[in-house]
């Protein structure tokens, strides 16, 4: 894809409802790249929670609405690997028996990008002019890494931040235990996975963990706060916007 002049923002539910500062940080970073931004006010959920829960008809209705909202966009950027994975892969399942919708889904999916993927692979940018003083470690979220194959892009962007030192944790690609409804259905397993993740974070000796999906980060932040651990939690957009 050639560098677009205008980007349409898809802000997923958890950022819109609970962590709006992440969306604002993403806007700052994209505006620094000289891009014009759109935000369709009628956008809603991509349908992933319904899809994962087995409610395919409900998920298809939400997916159809997503296509209606974003079909004419030049490029769509979202601060969530899991939502982009839903659009790029599972929409094809939802519309497998509807040729017209399947064609629309393929065209829209081809221009829907996760935030760091867009910066590095589409814009060709690894230095966004950010400064953040301190050591951080990075968590690979499952859908972003395994579903979209995004691994090096976030690390390249963090490496371009002045004053920041990236310290890799052991098994950074291991699930944190969130998994959306998984954490509610299987709390014991979820907590055990999170225990391991936090131990690996603490072993780095850093005071901050960075990721690209607020679901994972919210999950980690919950236990960190309950245990009053000296670790801050950041979406990568906040780091790249220069916010400490």
From TrEMBL:
It holds the Pfam family CCG. Transmembrane segments: none annotated. Residues 7-87, 136-221 form the Cysteine-rich domain. One of its GO terms (molecular function) is oxidoreductase activity. One of its GO terms (cellular component) is cytosol. It comes from the Bacteria. InterPro entries: Cys_rich_dom (IPR004017). This is L-lactate dehydrogenase complex protein LldE. It comes from Desulfomicrobium norvegicum (strain DSM 1741 / NCIMB 8310) (Desulfovibrio baculatus (strain Norway 4)).
């Amino acid at each position: 894809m050639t560098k677009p002049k205008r980007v349409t923002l898809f802000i997923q539910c958890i950022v819109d409802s609970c962590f709006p500062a992440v969306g604002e940080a993403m806007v700052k970073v994209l505006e620094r790249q000289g891009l014009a931004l759109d935000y369709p006010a009628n956008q809603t959920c991509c349908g992933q929670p319904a899809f994962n829960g087995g409610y395919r008809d409900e998920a298809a209705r939400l997916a159809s609405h997503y296509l209606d909202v974003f079909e004419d966009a030049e490029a769509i950027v979202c601060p969530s690997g899991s939502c982009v994975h839903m659009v790029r892969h599972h929409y094809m399942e939802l519309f497998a028996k509807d040729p017209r919708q399947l064609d629309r889904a393929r065209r829209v999916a081809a221009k829907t990008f996760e935030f760091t993927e867009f910066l590095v692979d589409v814009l060709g940018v690894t230095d966004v002019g950010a400064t953040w003083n301190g050591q951080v470690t990075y968590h690979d979220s499952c859908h972003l890494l395994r579903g979209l194959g995004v691994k090096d892009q976030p690390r390249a962007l963090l490496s371009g931040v002045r004053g920041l030192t990236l310290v890799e944790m052991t098994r950074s690609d291991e699930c944190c235990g969130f998994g959306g409804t998984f954490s509610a259905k299987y709390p014991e397993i979820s907590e055990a996975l999170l225990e391991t993740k936090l131990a690996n974070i603490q072993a780095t000796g850093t005071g901050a963990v960075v990721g690209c999906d607020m679901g994972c980060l919210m999950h980690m932040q919950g236990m960190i706060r309950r245990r009053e651990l000296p670790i801050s939690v950041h979406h990568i957009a906040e780091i790249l916007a220069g916010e400490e």
